[in-house]
What does this fold into?
Amino acid sequence: MTVWLVGAVVSTGVLLVGLARLRWLRAASNHLTEGELHRLCTGLARSCGLKRGVDLLLAPSPGLVATWGWRRPIVMLPASASGWPAERLRVVLLHELAHVRRGDWTLLMAAEALRCIWWFNPLAWMVRGRLRRESEHAADDLVLAQGVAPTTCAAHIVEIAREVRQDRETWLPAPAMARPSHLKRRLSVMLNADANRRPMTRLARFGSLGVLVPASILFASLQVGPASAAGLAESTGSAVEQEQPAEPMGIGEGVRPPTRTHGVLPVYPPAAVAAGVEGLVVLEATIGPTGEVTDVEVVRSVPLLDGAAVAAVSAWRYTPVLVEGKPRRVQMTVSVDFTLPAP
It folds into this structure.
């Protein structure tokens, strides 16, 4: 009982600190009540069928895109958004307004509250993480339903993720558009033409969360005796150790490069076309045991072209690399050449 109480207090404390940070961000941000950004947000909200008003804020930090609130939802963009191209602003606002339309923040707060109570139950953490991921996928699908090309949407998300990685914001209890831990899977789903993009109803989403309560009680009742703090720490440490994958191998030294089986052509960013930017983007791609590209890092950058290159390569597929008969993760260098057509 003491161990559970300590865990519940700590979990609740972290959640309350996050909510207090949201409150501070709202007070410290620039509230937009007029201007081009405000008009664009209002127009897109109407096109999405939103009847509630939305507060649009510019955050004091450069890498934050998030949405929260129930009665009067808040859409927060980074301070750099005022200099974004119109296409990126449209993609980002459509994505955040999709969260408002779906009521994702309310559902996520319910999942966070249940996690604080059943913090010891892996199912609570799994449901919370799954709801976060699925809310991002659903918002992406609603953006694509508004006529945005998948490759265009992916390229903008990658650029925003780079800003987030540079800023390294702390955790917030709100949907975040470019969370690095979810990015690779999102790009893969977004660029998959065969993916099921039918939206999940609100009743179904709350129903899936409601399953957590009886399932958690059942899971807890199956525990044999009270778990000690030492035993819990030992179990958690063992699980983390088992989940760490082996280091990827480099091409060469008996490791043959994989063959690409599926490719996606990069989309030339309109801003780069307008500026006449050409160049070769060199990337280091990690190929997973199943042939999926699991990580992409820019080795040689062309600033206006990096996002389109990463978005395309993230959707490529390769044959698995076998080492001693077993599939292994490998790293290989990939180049994407951007050349403008001759006038």
In short: DSSP finds twelve helices and twelve strands in the chain. The chain has two domains: 2-240, 250-338. The two ends are 74 Å apart (CA to CA).
